[in-house]
Amino acid sequence: LDADPDRSVAFYSQDMNQGMQDRMRIESGLRQALGNGELILYYQPKFEIGTDRLVGAEALVRWLDPARGIVPPGEFIPLAESTGLIVQVGEWVLEQACAQAALWQRAGLPPFRLAVNVSAREFTASLPARVAATLARYRLDASWLELEITESTLMHDFGRVTAIMDDIHRLGVALSLDDFGTGYSSLSYLKRFPIDTLKIDRSFTTGIPGDPSDCAIAGTIVSMAQQLGLRVIAEGVETVEQLSFLRESGCDEVQGYLYSKPLPADDFERSLRENWLL
Ligand code: C2E
Ligand code: CA
Ligand code: CA
Ligand code: CA
Can you say whether residue 67 is alpha, beta or left, with left for phi > 0 and alpha for psi between -120 and 50 degrees? Predict the structure, then answer.
């Protein structure tokens, strides 16, 4: 331990400086990435457990940095959220996802919902109109689109959030509650907000079947969803043991490496045509 208070303060502020420099470097890099077309979307399929039918996919952003290679969203989304840059990133993601879904719609593929992650800061009164305009621009049927939001979105002003959700539903776009069980909000919002699907967070799926608490939590989320008339999906399913537990519990859908990792659009489409179309 460093007993000299002056020295530890010096070290501390140096660390802070380094941290701030890192943040500023990533932020300006991300700003450029948006302009240079360095962001790309990967797509991960979702399957219905009972039928093994592909019922949807999730769009997940990556940053193709010429210097660093593929940068995962965990390394820039939290920063984008704290700086507000997430709004521009989100606009690009929605645009790109709708453009891609419209290509699949036009190619005559059987419809499935493509889910886009929407951060709390993007969930504003102007979102429904932007979604409507994007669907119209690509002539994409609203039944192709879903928005995944997290509990943090719901913790803002109730009336405002409900109004935005209602507007989104009126368009025919579905809403799911992502990372379910990891937030701190009360369960009462589940019956108050118009949500279609609960998404069990990967942190619970991981412990199945070995960890009794994770099994209890996942099982409880499934039965609660059933009683509330919501669909329920588990993310991060990697093993057949997890799949059988979820099937026994009555979970509707699964997503995870057991079926497929997130894939670039052309790989996703190839797998879709070769393996996932029943
Ligand atoms: P998320 O929305 O909870 O997405 C699920 C994450 O789990 C993805 O990580 C996915 O690749 C990963 N995953 C899926 N199946 C498995 C599995 O079986 N095993 C394991 N170990 N992982 C699995 P990814 O793509 O790195 O994304 C991380 C997070 O970044 C996302 O978590 C989401 O919160 C955020 N994110 C990604 N794309 C976007 C976006 O376009 N907009 C916003 N706002 N956030 C995004
Ligand atoms: Ca998600
Ligand atoms: Ca998650
Ligand atoms: Ca999430």
Answer: alpha
